[in-house]
Specification:
By secondary structure, this protein is of the alpha+beta class. It has a single domain, classed as Beta-lactamase (3-Layer(aba) Sandwich), CATH 3.40.710. It contains ten helices and ten strands. The strands form three sheets. It has a five-stranded antiparallel beta sheet, with helices on both faces. Strand 7 and strand 8 form a beta hairpin. Helix 2 runs parallel beside helix 5 and helix 4 runs antiparallel to helix 5. It is globular, with a radius of gyration of 20 Å.
Length: about 375
Amino acid sequence: MAFLMRTWIRLPLLAAGLMAAVLASIAPGLAGPSIVVDVGTGKVLSQEDAFRRWYPASLTKMITAYVVFDAIRSGEISLKSPVRISANAAKEPPSKMGYKPGSVLTIDNAMKILMVKSANDVATAVAESVGGSEQAFAARMNAAAARLGMTGSHFVNAHGLHSPDHYSTARDLAVVAIALRREFPQYAGYFALEAISSGKKVMPNNNTLIGRFSGADGMKTGYTCAAGFNLAGTATRNGRTLVAIVIGELSTETRAEKAAELLTRGFATPGFSAPRLANLRPSGGALLRQATDMRPAICTEEARKARFGHRDEQGRLVIRSPYISELDRPRRVIAVGLGGATGTGGGGSAAVYANVPIPTPRPDYRPTLAQGG
């Protein structure tokens, strides 16, 4: 027993050392970008390489959500408007729901699925149903980004699967996170969901902070081989809400640990003399035009072994943060499903919809180079 306990203690330490070696092998001294901003005041409490171009992975779905909520605000669609799963959407790589082509769900359920499951098939279906096509929806995303002042971003899809032309920065991702909280407070609950269920399947939120970090109430996670592990985390304490953007981390655990530490420090920082996000400028006046590609540090056998070292014998995550506690109660689960849509979709065309039985989910398949979550 003593030997096993010593082994368990050493595993995270060995994994941390291996991860450091993996990262050093591709970019000595590189730390992923981050930023912490007070949502109420717009003051930047801390930042590191906030203007560095990076692949956002599924943090993309925050700007997707912004476009959807903006379409609701304009009266173009409603939460009950239909989202139709096309053959094109059904072909998207995981993470996905596996709905059959022709299936229809509401915008409401689609948004819950995007924020928790981060399903790429549903994201594409939302883009097609609201924008008329993926390309038209991407144009809306870029137009919204321009209006918000996201000067270092360009989007080509609604899900965040890798494309060299699809990129953002920690600073820009903070901009859209704050816009969501300020402009659409009525939809804040979507970003704080602990889990959803479809039939008998329960899908927990990948955001480790939800339910485990004091005051955590959002927002989104993301992962691809090129992006690394990303997290937009928000928390509210004593009426003060902060957002932390952490991108380019080496594991689910390290992104959560870093975000928790940054948020904790942020709550201890008044920020009276801190710069405002709108006034923040790149240090040295130069921007790196090429996004960092994390594949050598994320999707190699060595990197996978390092991440496995962060888990216990049951395969559970081992979080080494004093700010993150164990969830001591069952997750709050919200049911989602197909059907229930009324009216027509966006994009200027009527949508065909109906109540469709929930299909049997496809077996999980997580390819090396194409996944998001």
